[in-house]
Design a protein that fits this description.
The chain is an alpha/beta fold. Helix content is about 40%, strand content about 20%. The protein has an eight-stranded mixed sheet. α3 packs antiparallel against α4, α5 runs antiparallel to α6 and α7 packs across α8. The chain starts with a strand and ends with a helix. The chain binds adenosine-5'-diphosphate, aspartic acid and magnesium ion (MG).
Length: about 425
């Protein structure tokens, strides 16, 4: 059972989580995110330190500390547990205060970002203690490992977790941190923003769980982005493939990589709402449920690159050379379209863009468009469903489309548009495809 930031962000919410995890006697691992707003606050503290603005960092740390002091007063009622919680807060905020005097580094940044999940899990455990609910805190840094390519080491996680669980055969409730991990150098690291979902799926896969429940602030995966479109509805059933495409192409409810571990080890995933625990939510399994369009998602900050071969035709070997440039710079390509003389690709990671562009210039002329958005239309066998393309293009008639990707996957049609057309496109598709 994984609970996101809003599910633990208020004292009453955290207490509600305790009720949810004690509803039955099944053995379970509870994965917690940081309290909502905390990771953003830690990012800001880190940025202030990186900019050598110590007074700003100090103010931000003090504000965060005050937030936690108030949180503890509402969460806990007994003097003894409050005292314990204050000792924990002192430890973590002392760490943050000490770093004000240390010079900034990437390793330190990761240590700072880890404080949120460390705090939320420790406070939750103190609350369980106050309520006399038996539990064990499993430190994620003792089992969640990533390799030098930032890939989780499922085999190692499995072995380490089994060893830890074996030590507590008599216990049913295990609490651990989402998001944080240890890297190949043994340093504290993380699974990137929103990574608690990924932690939960990896853990569920590692222990061969009967289900991986992702508890959040909405009743499951909706057919469109509820932050952008007013009328959206929850989807009851999705296949792993559909859910993975939606997560990868921008549905914020799931971390982009969070589906594959569950899919690989065939653990069903359920998306559930902490605020409405009895709502059905979304069930994700091997079975899609129905054929046709299920949902639309959008992913921003996309860069499109067009390489026009200097030779008039795309001779064999040209694509390989183009792809090798991206491979060399460990930058993955999301969309690709080709014509006789040119190839267009999109990337969502600009870190190595200058080197990539420079190397691509050797093959021909290179053009680039930043601030693009991929809009993905996802559904089972969508590419084989009659009229889908007509419906999509009728719906978005006023929108200029830069690229179209169709047929690469059976479950997805993707369009590339300029970012400023995103809201309009999502609304038009909501109407044209779902009649909402
Ligand atoms: P948590 O803190 O629990 O991980 P997130 O904020 O990461 O929660 O994810 C839940 C949010 O994802 C929802 O509140 C919603 O605004 C957003 N969201 C974006 N796209 C979708 C979608 N297709 N279905 C449901 N929620 C979505
Ligand atoms: N706390 C982390 C974040 O805000 C991880 C998560 O919430 O999933 O990104
Ligand atoms: Mg999230």
């Amino acid at each position: 059972m994984k609970f996101g930031g809003t599910s633990v962000g208020k004292p009453q919410r955290m207490q509600q989580v305790a009720t949810l995890v004690t509803k039955d006697d099944e053995r379970k691992i509870v994965v917690l995110s940081a309290l909502s707003g905390t990771t953003n606050a830690l990012v800001e503290i880190s940025e202030s330190l990186a900019n050598r603005d110590r007074s700003a960092a100090k103010e931000q740390i003090e504000a965060l500390q005050q937030h936690y002091r108030n949180f503890v007063l509402e969460l806990l009622q007994e003097a003894e547990t409050r005292e314990k919680a204050n000792v924990i807060l002192n430890e973590h905020f002392e760490f943050l205060t000490i770093i004000l005097k240390i010079s900034f580094s990437q390793a330190l940044n990761k240590d700072i970002l880890a404080q949120g999940e460390l705090l939320s899990t420790k406070l939750f455990c103190i609350y369980l203690e106050e309520k006399k609910i038996g539990h064990v805190l499993l430190p994620a840094l003792d089992f969640m490992t990533i390799d030098s390519y930032d890939e989780p080491q499922v085999g190692t996680i499995k072995v380490k977790l089994a060893q830890l669980l074996n030590k507590h055969k008599d216990k049913n409730i295990f609490v651990t941190q989402g998001y944080i991990s240890r890297n190949a150098k043994g340093e504290v690291d993380n699974l990137k923003r929103g990574g608690s979902d990924y932690s939960a799926s990896l853990i569920a896969a590692a222990i061969n769980a009967s289900v991986c429940e992702i508890w959040t602030d909405i009743d499951g995966m909706h057919n469109n982005d509820p932050r952008v479109v007013e009328k959206t509805k929850a989807i009851e059933q999705l296949s792993f493939d559909e859910a993975a495409e939606l997560a990868y192409f921008g549905a914020k409810i799931l971390h982009p990589a969070s589906i594959w571990p569950a899919q690989f080890f065939n653990v069903p995933v359920r998306l559930l709402n902490t605020l409405e625990p009895d709502a059905k939510g979304t069930l994700i399994t091997e079975v899609a449920g129905s054929v046709g369009v299920k949902a639309v998602a959008a992913k921003d900050n996309i860069t499109a690159i067009r390489i026009k071969s200097s030779r008039m035709l795309l001779a064999y070997g040209f694509l390989r050379k183009v792809f090798e440039v991206f491979e060399k710079h460990r930058t993955s390509i999301d969309m690709i379209t080709t014509s006789e003389v040119a190839v267009s690709v999109t990337i969502d990671d600009d870190v190595h863009l200058p080197e990539i562009l420079k190397e691509l210039e050797a093959f021909g002329s290179v053009e680039m468009d930043t601030n693009q958005t991929i809009v993905s239309i996802v559904g089972n066998e969508i590419a084989e469903t009659k009229d889908v393309m007509k419906k999509i293009f009728d719906a978005i008639e006023p929108i200029p489309v830069r690229m179209v990707s169709y047929g690469g996957s059976k479950h997805n049609v993707s369009l590339l548009i300029a970012r400023n057309y995103k809201e309009q496109t999502l609304k038009l598709l909501n109407n044209g495809l779902f009649g909402l």
